[in-house]
Design a protein that fits this description.
The complex is a heterodimer of chains A (about 230) and B (about 230).
Chain A: H1 5-31, E1 36-40, E2 45-69, E3 76-79, E4 83-104, E5 107-126, E6 140-167, E7 170-175, H2 194-225
Antiparallel strand pairs in A: 1-7, 2-6, 3-7, 4-5, 4-6
Chain B: H1 6-31, E1 40-54, E2 60-71, E3 81-90, E4 97-110, E5 117-132, E6 149-150, E7 153-154, E8 158-162, E9 175-185, E10 188-199, E11 208-213, E12 222-231
Antiparallel strand pairs in B: 1-4, 2-3, 2-12, 4-5, 6-7, 8-9, 9-10, 10-11
Chain lengths: ~230, ~230
């Protein structure tokens, strides 16, 4: 398709230039970037335990984690995963509500409600690792707070044994790659996918280079003729 | 015309069109879904069963569910990155049956022109319910057929039933039970779940089959896996 040797060389050079500038250099730069920073709570294991003879009872606990965001907010996603374990044994049918309230810089970001209906439970798990509300975050020092409220009710007095263990509460700061081109957003110069953009730009510029090549070739021929 | 000859136009513009077409066709194939005019849309909140663990009398059971999320398709470097979003394990004992639900907003859509219809979970709330299903009878679970209302919301209909005596001493051959979950919205089936568990005459066994058919929201791209282990004592 590309008959002139000069045009062929120009096209190849142009594509190589695009690949290097738009893909290889940002990819190399993104290799040195730390994509995931983790801040742990001071206590790795927090326990809420209650052994009472009552018709209703409640308990609560608050855990705080300080963390820092260095990159621009659009390029990060902050999550706060934790593991929980519930061991409960009640003398009668009882309804227990465990409410996890996730605060960012003093503002409520997410509420998780766990209801237990029955007499005996042995469960362990983690919750879906959703990002915290980005509008509550700020570049620099931030504070995450997990507030746990437990309320239990029964239709009569009974012996209740309840234990909730929270493990590995941590705040994770992920650097994003929204255009999914393998280059972290905080070092990515193109918001559009670099690879696709390179291919499109190469295709668009081919006729232009061809035109330039044909002009150059004509000039060379004229010089040769003269 | 501006010093451009006809051959040049044909050659390079055709080349440009071909390359662009290939790129756009590639994009369209990957990202485009058929679009239907969903003119009937019904939304309903339901307690949706995430998992169900049923311990045999004098025995223990453990059921685990993990939700995997498929994400991060890298075109240039790397490949697919899958990671676990959440996981839960229930460990009932001695004839107990424990079920775990999540409050979900189900959406039923129908395109009257084509007759195409689908069910999908539109929203998953951060509200969970762990429920002792067995009631007062732990010896057999034939009374565990449930369709309950909690906090003003009805559960999706599900059945938990032993089809043979679960005591190994009473039944030296294989015993088993089925757990089935169905969702019914008006007259249409939404998804189905069948778990078959075999309890053999040995101390520790784990054999389970799990079929989960769900009409997922393309946006969520969620796949649910379930693993079931039974330890008969």
């Amino acid at each position: 398709m590309l008959k002139s040797k000069g045009t062929r060389v120009l096209c190849i050079a142009w594509i190589i230039f695009l690949v290097v500038v738009l893909n290889v250099l940002p990819a190399v730069r993104s290799m040195g970037v730390e994509s995931n920073t983790i801040y742990y709570a001071s206590n790795m294991e927090i326990t809420i335990e209650k052994k009472v003879y009552a018709s209703s009872w409640n308990a609560s606990k608050t855990i705080e984690v300080d963390f820092t965001i260095k990159d621009p907010l659009y390029s990060v996603s902050v999550t706060a995963p934790f593991e929980w374990e519930i061991l409960a044994n009640y003398g009668r049918w009882q309804v227990t509500r465990v409410k996890y309230m996730l605060y960012v810089n003093g503002e409520l970001s997410r509420v998780i409600i766990e209801d237990l209906v029955g007499t005996s439970f042995n469960a362990i798990g983690t919750y879906e690792n959703k990002p915290l509300n980005g509008s509550l975050l700020k570049v620099g020092a931030n504070k995450f707070t997990l507030k746990i409220d437990v309320v239990s009710t029964c239709d009569d007095f009974c012996q209740s044994s309840f234990k909730l263990i929270i493990r590995n509460l941590r705040v994770q700061n992920h650097v994003l790659d929204l255009d999914m081109d393998g280059i972290w957003d905080n070092v990515d110069v193109l918001p559009i996918n670099n690879t696709i953009f390179t291919a499109l730009f190469s295709a668009l510029s081919t006729p232009i280079i061809g035109y330039l090549g044909s002009i150059l070739e004509r000039k060379f021929r004229k010089n040769e003729e003269n | 015309m501006l010093g451009i000859n006809r051959n040049f136009l044909v050659t390079y513009l055709l080349e440009f069109l071909i390359i662009s077409s290939i790129i756009f066709a590639f994009y369209i194939i990957i990202y485009t879904e058929p679009v239907y005019a969903w003119d009937i849309q019904i939304r309903e909140d339901k307690w949706t069963l995430l998992m169900l663990a049923h311990a045999p009398r004098y025995g223990k059971a453990q059921a685990a569910a993990a939700c995997l999320h498929e994400d991060d398709l890298y075109i240039l470097i790397g490949g697919f990155h899958n990671y676990i979003l959440d996981s839960v394990i229930l460990r009932p004992e001695d004839g107990q049956c424990c079920a775990r639900f999540q409050k979900c907003k189900w959406l039923y859509e129908k395109c009257t022109a084509t007759g195409q219809e689908r069910f999908l979970i539109e929203t998953k709330y951060d509200v969970f319910l762990t429920y002792n299903v067995y009631g007062s009878n732990r010896s057999t679970c034939e009374d565990d057929i449930e369709y309950f209302c909690y906090d003003g919301i009805w559960s999706i209909n599900f059945t938990s039933k032993y089809t043979a005596q679960d005591r190994i001493e009473d039944n030296p051959s294989n015993s088993w039970y089925d757990v089935s979950l169905t969702v019914q919205h008006n007259q249409y089936w939404a998804y189905e779940l069948t778990i078959s568990v075999r309890i053999r005459n040995v101390l520790t066994v784990g054999a389970g089959k799990f079929y989960f058919k769900i009409y997922p929201d393309q946006r969520l791209r969620t796949r649910i896996l379930l693993d079931l282990d039974i330890n008969g004592l």
